[in-house]
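Sequence design from tokenized structure. All designs in this work follow the same two-part layout: the structure record, then the generated sequence. An example of the structure record is given first.
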């Protein structure tokens, strides 16, 4: 009886998590596959960008001064990293860029970190709402595919990333500019033929 109970506990502790992990991996693979079918990046580049973001943020969080004194976001698209957020001093701002630059796979860093105190949670929530509004505005237009544009918002400033033709980039920029609450639109895109 004790052997059966021990075997049951071992099954629950070791086998079930592995099975769930496999399901999670399969589900994630399906989700990534669906997204990348629409994306102009290859599936490998899409995954590379996700890994770059995680590695940049992990490296930044490992630095106690950055962790405690700043608010930083890192977004990667085709190896181009956009840094947004706030840092109270230029030395911290430069340190953040240095940390991001050395992460494997980063081709270039676009630094948009403001020199000011970290934003409030209310301000970040407003930025998230604004990102949603811009995405909805892009979805409503047939001339530009919303899945080709990555939208990041910080302090009311909308950053547009992606691999776009010039006409698509111009249209996406114009659409974003017309959304109520957008202070400015910054193109952080690469152009394709």
């Amino acid at each position: 009886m004790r052997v059966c109970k021990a075997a049951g506990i071992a099954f629950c502790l070791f086998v079930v998590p592995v099975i769930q992990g496999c399901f999670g991996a399969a589900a994630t693979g399906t989700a990534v596959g669906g997204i990348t079918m629409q994306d102009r990046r290859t599936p490998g580049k899409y995954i590379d960008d996700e890994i770059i973001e995680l590695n940049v943020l992990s490296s930044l969080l490992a630095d106690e001064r950055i962790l405690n004194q700043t608010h930083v976001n890192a977004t990667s698209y085709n190896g181009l990293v956009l840094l947004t957020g706030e840092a109270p001093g230029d030395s911290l701002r430069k340190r953040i860029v240095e940390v991001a630059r050395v992460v494997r796979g980063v081709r270039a860093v676009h630094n948009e970190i403001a020199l000011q105190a970290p934003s409030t949670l209310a301000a970040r929530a407003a930025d998230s709402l604004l990102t949603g509004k811009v995405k909805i505005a892009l979805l409503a237009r047939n001339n530009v595919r919303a899945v080709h544009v990555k939208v990041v918002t910080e302090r009311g400033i909308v950053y547009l990333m992606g691999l776009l033709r010039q006409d698509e980039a111009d249209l996406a920029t114009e659409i974003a500019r017309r959304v109520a609450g957008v202070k400015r639109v910054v193109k952080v895109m690469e152009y394709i033929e």
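Helices lie at 2-38, 43-61, 64-69, 90-101, 121-139, 166-177. We note this feature because it recurs in several other targets discussed in the main text.
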